[in-house]
Structure formats: C-alpha cells, structure tokens
Design goal:
Elements (H helix, E strand, L loop, with lengths): L3 H25 L6 E5 L4 H12 L4 E5 L3 H7 L11 E4 L2 E5 L3 H10 L5 E4 L19 E5 L5 E6 L1
Parallel strand pairs: 1-2, 4-5
Antiparallel strand pairs: 1-3, 3-4, 5-6, 6-7
C-alpha cells in the first residue's frame, strides 16, 4: 500500500508533468491577433459569424454601429465586395462571412492584400447556416490597386 507521503509525491510529480506538457502545447500554438468586428446591432448572422470566429480560436471585439456605410468607406471596401459586417485583424480587412480557417491562412502567409471578402450573404457560409442548403461561393482577395482574385472557393 502506498503511503500518504508517497501518494503526495506522485501527485505533485504528475501535476508538474502536466503543467510542463501544457506549457509546451501553448508555446506551440500560434497566437492569433484580436479581430475587431463592426456590425449592425440587430444583425443575427453577424453575431453567428462572431461565434464562429471565437470557436476557431480568435478573440473578438465587437463594435455595434448603425452606420456600416461609414465603416466600409473608411476601410475602403469595394462596393462589389460588400456584405453585412466588416472586420479588422492585424493589417487586414475582412468583409462578410469569411471562414476562420481562411483568415488564419491569410495571416500565416502574410498575404500582400488588403483583405478577404465574401460578397453578399451566401447560404452555408459561416454564420449563414440558415436553410440547411449550402451555396457555392468564392472568397475574394483584393489589393490596394483594386485588383481582385479568387482566394478560395467553397
């Protein structure tokens, strides 16, 4: 039978090992920048997109504003790429229901773009899982020059 002292030593050693292991895991995990989301206070799909970001490791700061046109003008989001909400993460602008994985990819590759956009509000995009039907859609990258390209298709 193990003594109380032996049990205590084993418990402390196990706890110390778990702490060291968890520190290694945390050190290996990429630190994501805060993503600030500008949205209309009454928009439900925007709130769902924020939850999608949080579930994928982003820390979000939500700024409710009734004047989204001013935000889009300030962030220089091209009219053809606009959606219901606009976000800023690091030096990038994210417009609409862009999947979190693609935002992470953009950040990791330090893409030479202004940002990513999912124009409109396609069914099945993160935050738009409303009808059970998923539309095909493109995630568009845009540059300061105004040039756009398909970054990914879903």
């Amino acid at each position: 039978m193990i003594s109380r002292r032996g049990w205590l030593r084993a418990s402390v050693a196990s706890a110390a090992g778990l702490l060291v292991a968890s520190d290694r895991l945390l050190a290996d995990a990429p630190v994501l920048p805060v993503i600030t989301v500008y949205k209309d206070p009454s928009c439900g799909c925007c709130t769902k997109w924020v939850k999608h970001l949080s579930a994928n490791g982003f820390v979000t700061m939500v700024r409710d504003t009734p004047d989204m046109d001013e935000i889009k003008r300030t962030m220089q989001v091209p009219a053809a790429l606009q959606s219901c909400h606009t976000a800023v993460v690091g030096a990038y602008v994210v417009e609409g229901h862009v999947p979190a994985g693609l935002i992470k990819k953009m950040l990791a590759e330090k893409a030479q773009i202004v940002g990513l956009a999912v124009p409109g509000m396609p069914n099945g995009a993160p935050g738009m899982e409303t009808s059970g039907k998923a539309d095909k859609y493109d995630v568009i990258a845009w540059e300061r020059s105004g040039k756009t390209r398909v970054y990914a298709s879903r």
